[in-house]
Amino acid sequence: MARMPSAERRRQLTEAAIRVMARDGVARATTRSICAEAGVSLSVFHYCFDSKQALLESVIAAITEHGITVAREAIRPRATLRETIRAGFQAYWDHVAANPGEHMLTYELTQYALRRPGFEHLARRQYELYCDTYTELIEQLRLLMPFELRVPAHVLARYLAAMTDGLTLNHLVLGDTAVSAAILDMITDHVAGLTETADGDRAHAPEYAGPPLSV
Amino acid sequence: MARMPSAERRRQLTEAAIRVMARDGVARATTRSICAEAGVSLSVFHYCFDSKQALLESVIAAITEHGITVAREAIRPRATLRETIRAGFQAYWDHVAANPGEHMLTYELTQYALRRPGFEHLARRQYELYCDTYTELIEQLRLLMPFELRVPAHVLARYLAAMTDGLTLNHLVLGDTAVSAAILDMITDHVAGLTETADGDRAHAPEYAGPPLSV
DNA sequence: GTCTATAGGAAGATAGAC
DNA sequence: GTCTATCTTCCTATAGAC
Predict the structure, then answer these.
(1) Could you tell me the pTM of the whole model?
(2) How many CB atoms sit inside 10 A of residue A85's CB?
(3) Chain A closest CA to B12's CA: distance in Å?
(4) Which of A126, A151, B55, B149 lies 20 to 30 Å (CA to CA) from residue B30?
(5) Which pLDDT tens digit goes with each residue over B32-67?
(6) Which domains does chain A show, CATH number per domain?
């Protein structure tokens, strides 16, 4: 195999690990299978990482970073706040539908970290980053489309993080797209109802009814 | 060891497995540790179960049944619909706070089932049962305290299942009780706002404000 | 039905040549 | 830095006596 600096090898192995884990699950991702995926030998692995746990630490950091990017890119300002919210949920949802293994992996890694003594902080940091990202997105959106919130931003952020988490897991198990769409409509109404635009009107349609807005 | 019928041994081993898994996680729950917890030898285990997977099937069935019981017992009719909803969330939440390992276990078992080819149906059945239970509870509640829903009952049921799932996982990781309480208040308002009592009024306070209602 | 003993394999990690 | 070969440990499952 071609020689390459440790840092690049580490990236290569981390990405191979993510591919194997997204495909087969964390439990089946042995160092051997990860090395096979990356096309290197076992000892190259142990040259780059002290242990399998060290690799997993790297994997968790990478996958968290990726998840945050997905959330960030889901938010694109639209004509109305309600449209922005609905389109944001939809963009996130499309990513889940297109990459189920990757989303499943994030849950497995959370469990892994919570169960491994001394690794709990990795799970905590992961979830804190998600909450912080949502908070940040709310604030940024407020600069572009002024509105008031009926709940503190950090409470809404945490609700959004938890709720999308739950919906995602539910969808990974049951996978009923029609019901999922109805729920996305419902929570869009809910979240829009928590906002108040500058002129005092609520920025949402009060009745649950319509199909997803076209984008 | 005292001799006992297979059926009872199976229950004994299933319960021991749940204790070990809730404490140490699924990955660390080896047949040996489960047998030690149950106080039997390895061969007794293999006399009662064909394989470890057979035990896990039994564990998933038992833990799902338990989860449903928790949800069922959380709903107790109160003076108003809103109070009933809030108290229901609180009762469920108290159970999470008191039994974190058990709730964590349900997530791990879901992952396990989804990842083990041929076991996906166990995860699906688990989540379908949760949704069905919520639907059933909504219908039962409607008999006692008549109200209309702005969304189909099965959509609300699935939302409730997914949302409590997400909140629970979030709480297991971050564990901030104050924010969790604020979120419970918020979703109580949301859900109450989806209902309409017979006289046409909404059965909720429209503003997010107060502390949890006293019970 | 329950025991002790062990088969048989797969995992993480290391040794030492190149 | 990378290789092949091996160590050590731990697992599930079985064999066969009682």
Answers:
(1) 0.92
(2) 25
(3) 24
(4) A126
(5) 999 999 999 999 999 999 999 999 999 999 999 999
(6) 1-49 (1.10.10.60), 51-197 (1.10.357.10)
